[in-house]
# Entry
Amino acid sequence: MSAKIKKDRAINLALFKSTLEEWRYNPAFIPIMAIGFLFLIGYSIVSVTFVDAPIHEATFSSVFWTALPSVALLGAGIIGKNVSSGILSVLFARPIRRYSYVLTRWLALSVASSALCLILLAIEQIAAMAAFPGILPDFNTLSQAVARVSMCFGLSATFVMFSSIFPNTLDLGIWIMLSFSSNLIVEISHIEPYMISQISCNDLNRKITEFVVPICKELAIPIQSLVSPYLDLAYLTHTGSVSWYAVFTYFSNIGLCLLIAIAIMNRKEVSYASK
Amino acid sequence: MQVNKKIASEVMPLYLVAAVAVLMLGRVGSGIYERMYPEKFKSKDLVEWRQPLEGLNESQATGKPVFMYFSGANYIHKDEEYRRNYFSDEKIAQGINSKYIPVKVFDAACGRTPKDPVVQQMQDRFLQWYTQPSVHVVPKECQIIHAKRYSLPHLYTFSVTDPRRNMFSFIDSNSNWHPVPLSPAKEVKWTRIDEAQNKAKLEHKPVLYFFARHNDEECNEAMNEFFSKSKNDCKNHRLDDYVCCMIYDHAPSGSKNSQAVDSLIQKYKVQTYPTFIIDKTPIQGISDKVIGYRGHDSMEEFLANNLCR
# Structure
C-alpha cells in the first residue's frame, strides 16, 4: 500500500526546496558564481562609466551570457547526476511520480537561474542610474528581464531533457556541441541559391550544397530555439503584428523537451535490482 | 503489487501532452501563415532612407553628414538582422534621422546583372573595403571623399554586450565627425566649387584652390601641413585672405568626377597632386593672374612666397 501516491501534484514542494538547498550547500557553487558575476558586473560598470559618448539607456550584458552560466552551472547533470549516483533509486522508493520529479527539477532550475539573472540585471540598471542619473528603467529593461527569464526557463528545459538521456554532466558537453553545430547550420542556411554555383568547385560539390542548404534552412530555427530559446519582446513587437510562430515555437519547445524527459524517465530502470 | 507501483509512478501527464499538442499545432499553423505573408512579419524600418544622389544633395544643402548604409542582394539575411536589431529601434532610428541624412545603397545585382550606375558610383566613391553591409559616414563637406567606415557589429550569439550599445556610441560620436584633413583646420572655411569665383569677386579676394587626389598620402600630409590650426599659428599663413576651395580628383581611383571638377582640372592643367592654385582673376580681372604649385618645385617655397606674411 505504501506504493500508492496520495498527492497528485505536478510540482513537489519538498523536492523543490531540497533542490534549492542542494545548490546552496554546494561548496563550489558560490565562489564560481561570484567570480562569474563579478566579471559581468565589473564589465557592465566599466562600459557605462568610461564611454566616449552620452548614453541613452543602461548597458546590459547579453542575454545569452547571463542566462547560460547560471543555467549551466546549476543545471549541468540536474537529473543525470542523480541517476549516476543512485539517488533516484532511493527517491523513487517514496511516493513521487516521475513526471513530478522532472517538472520540479526543471522549475527549481528555472526559478533559481532566473533569480540570479534578474539580480544581475538590477545591479546593471543601478550602476547605469548611478553613473547617469537621467537613465531610468524603460522598455529595454523590461525586454531584457523577459528575455533573461524566458531564456532561463527555455535552457533549463533543454538541459533537463539532455540530462535525462545522458549520465552525469554529459548534458553540458552535448549542449556545447549542439551549440557549435547550430551556428554552423545557421551560417550554411544563409547561402542563397545563386551563390551555390559560385562556391562549388565541381558538380558533386554543387549537388551536395544544393541538397544540404535547404535542409539547413529548415533546421536553423528549430535548432536555435533548442540551443538558445528566448522571447525577445522587442522583436515580437517591432513588426507591428506579433510573431505567434516565435511564441509557439518557444513554448512548444519547452513542452516537448519536458515530455521527452518524462518519457525517458518513465522508461528508466532505477531500482536496486538494476544495479 | 510491484506492477501497481510502476503504474502509479510512471504515468505521462495528459494535460502536458494535450498542451504540447496544441502548441505544436499552433506552431505549424502560425509557421504556414507567416510563410504565406512574410511581408507582414518583416521588421519595421523606422529610418527615413533617401536615394543616394538625393541624400548627398540634401547633405550639402543642410550641412548634415550622410549616414550611408551599404547592403545588397547577397546580404538579405544580414539586412533583416540589422533592420530587426537597429533600424526598427525607435531610439536608434531617431538618432540617425535627426543627426544624419540616411542613405541606403542597395546593390540588387551582386554580380549577376549590370549594376545600377548610381550604386556603382557610390560603391566606387565610398565603399573602399568591399564588405557589406557597412555604414559610412560621409562628412558634410561632400566634395571631400574621405568617409569614415563602420562595420555594423555582427549579431553573434556570443557577443558579450548588447550590440545596440555600440550603435548608440557610433551615432553620437560620428555626428560631428570631420574627415582627418579637415579636423585640425576647422577655421578654414571651404567654399563650394561653383560658389568660389562669385564669392571671391564679392569679397575681393583671390581664390586658393587645393587640388588633391583621393587616398593620397602626400595630399593628406600637405593638407595637414598647410591647413591645420596649430601649424598655421607657427607659419602665419594668411588663409583668411583667400577664398579657399578644395577639389578632389576621383579619376585616379576609377570614378567619374563632376563636370565642375573636370573643368577646373582642365582649366588649370592639373596633372600632379597636390596642386595649389592661386587665382587672382576675380580681383584683378586679368585672365593670366594664375600662379600655382604643380608638383615641380618646392611646395614650401611656393607657399612661403605666396601664402605667408
Remarks:
- Chain B touches chain A through 49 residues (CB under 8 Å).
- The first strand of chain B starts at residue 66 and ends at 72.
